[in-house]
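Usage

Read records sequentially. Each one opens with the input sequence:
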Amino acid sequence: MDRVYNILLDEKLIGTTTFEKADASMGVVFGQIKFLDIETPYDFFKFYCKKKKIDFEDYPDDKVISTRTISTLKITNDKGQEIAGLGNQISGIDSESFELTIEGIPYPFYGDEFPHHVRADEERFK
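and closes with the structure output:
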């Protein structure tokens, strides 16, 4: 069973992810977001980023957005530990899905938290 990670924005739970993908050599995890009580993530993040002066790129006609690091975005595991790295980004399109990426998660924490991604990376380069 995949571990579920909580996604908090300004300390409010906005969704979860399982971080189903990774680049272990770079300390990166990413996964699809399952939102709670957010019907249009594009509008939600565009408004939030404008309000907080966070850089983002968007294509309004298609409701596509990609944010830069959101410092008030916090991701925690089932023990309440924060999964922190050098940066995080949210990107997606309202008509499909959104993804959360965390870059630069330091070792040994990365290996302890995501051993399955480390093993998969090692297998890939055998």
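Summary fields computed downstream for this record:
- The beta strands are 5-9, 12-17, 21-23, 28-32, 34-35, 56-59, 64-67, 73-76, 87-93, 98-103.
- The first helix runs from residue 41 to 52.
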